[in-house]
Specification:
heterodimer; A: alpha+beta; 7 strands; B: 386 residues; alpha/beta; eight-stranded mixed β-sheet; 36% helix
Chain lengths: 89, 386
């Protein structure tokens, strides 16, 4: 069971939740589990079989792209989804 | 009871002493500590010396020189006050302290190099007194701030608090780039402006507020949107730090590329609703914006505050964090957010941190850059999904 933190720009896709729970052994399995329940999220997270290039995913504070990408094994830490925000307004 | 002369003789037997010529040979290795009064200090000092008046020595030395084994050469005008100071430092546990006999007078008479410190005016000494008391800032740091130049991108939510605190801190030159005018929907959070400025260019409104707050600050206004066409002119004026509070992705990527090429560190802040992000980009030591976000999000994932809203106080917090990072960069103190992205959530009042690493394949700051000149940033951001 892994907590997945949802950024404000993706909350509409998960019914307004700030955090959801995903099951699985790897980042891919956890995110696919969540996307399975919130199909609108899938289009924002995945591009083909890969992570969409504009979404950063952190596990234990590390960008999974610097680990084993989607195949990184989860370890009890929360996953943070983080798209860029432009606003300085 | 001993007379002054006897006491001095007694103290000199207990301390190490060297002449000016020998002291000069220790320059670069030993820390020179001047214990004269301020007026004496202002007339000339041994280059690189730090200054603590004799009367404040015991209370301030540990803040300025925490390492008790540091080699210290003490001097005053003629060598007597510094002899007592040397004894006192020994009593405080400083084990490598030497008194320069003959003091600054002998040093100068020997024809050795001196420098005249820039000094704060009495008004500045009062205004910045709380900075001067902090060892990490002090006189030298305050003078450095007064000589510093910070360019703010945007005089909006983030630019308001960051510019106010940087001006209050005495950053001598602030440049502000913003093409907008003050609108009443800004005033819920943009505290550098006010109701009587409605319709006024934001850069002019900010200039009035900041220069009224601190007349030491010169505000240079750029009433224009930062573009590929004007960025070289604006950055070419020379800036020590850029504080990025832009409100759109094209400007973010433009600021990034320009700052990488000009080697200017960027304090990045962004906000949306209840959440903010802060970091420092400073290649080649740290990552750049493109290392963190190589691809801008599609428009539906990147709503602005005008579309999605923002809690009024949020830019106050995030912009103040940016000012904090900028001041540390200017003063070269502490640990900045370089390599770390700070995530602030105002609803839960939580701060999280994620690592940001340099991407060796980054098209701008990487080992083999593929973007080496300004591109059409609007088109680049519009084509995000493609």
């Amino acid at each position: 069971m892994t907590k997945v933190r949802i950024p404000p720009t993706l909350r509409n896709e998960v019914g307004g939740e700030r955090e959801v729970i995903g099951e699985g052994e790897t980042v891919r399995e956890v995110l696919e589990d969540v996307a399975g329940r919130y199909p609108a999220l899938e289009a924002q997270l995945f591009d083909g079989g890969s992570l969409a290039p504009f979404v950063n995913v952190y596990l234990g504070g590390e960008d999974v792209r610097t680990l084993d990408g989607l195949e990184t094994r989860v370890n009890g830490s929360a996953l943070i989804l983080l798209p860029a925000m432009a606003g300085g307004c | 009871m001993a007379t002054y002369r006897e006491l001095l003789a007694q103290v000199r037997e207990e301390i190490e002493e060297i002449g000016a010529a020998e002291a000069r040979e220790r320059q670069g290795e030993a820390l020179f500590l001047d214990v004269r009064e301020r007026e004496e200090w202002e007339e000339g000092v041994v280059p690189g010396a730090i200054h603590i008046p004799r009367g404040q020595l015991e209370s301030r030395i540990e803040g300025l020189v925490p390492d008790h084994s540091r080699e210290i050469v003490l001097y005053c005008s003629g060598g007597s006050r510094s002899a007592f100071a040397a004894k006192s430092l020994g009593d405080l546990g400083y084990g490598n302290v030497t008194n320069m006999t003959g003091g600054f007078t002998d040093w100068k008479r020997s024809g050795f190099e001196i420098e005249t410190p820039r000094s704060l005016t009495p008004d500045q000494r009062r205004r910045y007194s709380r900075h001067l008391l902090i060892p990490e800032v002090g006189d030298a740091g305050q003078e450095r701030l007064l000589a510093s130049r910070v360019l703010l991108i945007g005089a909006g939510g983030l630019g308001s608090p960051s510019s106010l605190y940087l001006a209050a801190a005495g950053v001598g030159t602030l440049g502000i780039v913003d093409a907008d005018v003050v609108d009443d929907s800004n005033l819920q959070r943009q505290i550098v402006h006010s109701t009587d400025r409605l319709g006024e260019p934001k850069v002019e409104s900010a200039k009035r507020t900041l220069e009224a707050l601190n007349p030491d600050v010169e505000v240079k206004t750029f009433e224009e949107r930062l573009t590929s066409e004007n960025v070289e002119r604006i950055l070419g004026e020379g800036w020590d730090v850029i504080v990025d509070g832009a409100d759109n992705f094209p400007t973010r990527y433009l600021v990034n590329d320009a700052s990488v090429w000009h080697r200017i560190p960027v304090v990045h802040g962004s906000i949306y609703r209840f959440e903010g992000q802060v970091t420092v980009f400073n290649p080649p030591e740290g990552p750049c914006y493109r290392c963190l976000f190589p691809t801008p999000p599609p428009p539906e994932l990147a709503p602005s505050c005008a579309e999605g809203g923002v809690l009024g106080v949020l830019p106050g917090i995030v912009g103040s964090l940016q000012a904090n990072e900028a001041l540390k960069l200017l003063l070269d103190i502490g640990d900045t957010l370089q390599g770390r992205l700070l995530l602030f959530d105002a609803l839960g009042t939580t701060l999280d941190e994620v690592a940001v690493k340099r991407d060796p394949t980054c098209p701008v700051c990487g080992e083999h850059p593929t973007i080496t000149e300004y591109v059409d940033y609007v088109e680049f951001c519009a084509g995000a999904r493609g």
